[in-house]
Amino acid sequence: xxxxxxxxRYSYGSKEVVKGVSFGADxxxxxxxxxxxxxxxxxxxxxxxxxxxxxxxxxxxxGEDTSEMSKKAIARKMAFVTQTNNVTFPFTVFETVMxxxxxxxxxxxxxxxxxxxxVTQAMADAGILxxxxxxxxxxxxxxxxxxxxxxxxxxxPEILLLDEPTLHLDINHQFDLLELVRRLSREKNILxxxxxxxxILASRYCDKIVFxxxxxxxxxxxxELVATAENYRRIFKIITEISQDPRFGLDVKLVERDHGE
Length: 261
What we know:
Rossmann fold
C-alpha cells in the first residue's frame, strides 16, 4: 500500500472525533470518504496530511511513518486542497500555482526554469492555462477550484487530498471537476482521497468508498460492492434506487428520506 492508516484516533479536548480508523489505498485510485457532516471526515484528512497529530495510531506513507517526516517532506509527497481558499491579494493564476513549488525550493531560491515548466504543466493538466495571467479574484468558483488543484499538482504529489471539492459549485462544474480528478488519477498515477457527502458523484467517480459514521468506519471497499441502498439508508438516512449505467458505472437516484418505522 502507498498509504496506510493504522488505528488512527484524534480528539478535540475530551471529545474523540476519529475513533480507531484503519484502511489502505494505492496510487492510481480515487477513494471517497463519505459520511454526514460532523462524522470526522475532514479531521481524518488532516490527520493523514499531518496537520493534526493523531492521539494514537499512525499514518504510513510509502513505508515511512509521517510523524517522523518534516512538513516539507510530507508536502513533497502529499498535497491538500481545503474546502475554502481565502484569497486576500489579487495574485495572478500563474503566481498562485507557483506557490505550490514551495516544498521543492529553499528559503532563498528563486523560481527556476524547471519550476516554470512544472507549473505550466500543472495549469495545462487542470485546464487553466488560457488564463494564467488573470487575477485569481476575477475567476468563477469553478475556475478558482481548478487553480488550487493546479497549485497542488505543482507540488508533484503522489497523493492528493480534496476536502469537499464540489462544495458551492453548480452541477456542471461538479461533473467537470470530478472528471478532471479521475483523469488525473489515471494519467498521473496519483492516489486521490476525496472527502464528500455527495453520494451521487462519489458513486460515479470513486473506485473505492470509505463510509464513516460518528468517527468510525462502517463499511469500506470497491464502490460497486459497498455503494448499496442499505449503506446509504443506514449512513445518510435516505432511500435510494441504484442501477448500473454503462456510461459511468453506478447510477444513484434519491427517492426520499428514511422516516424510520
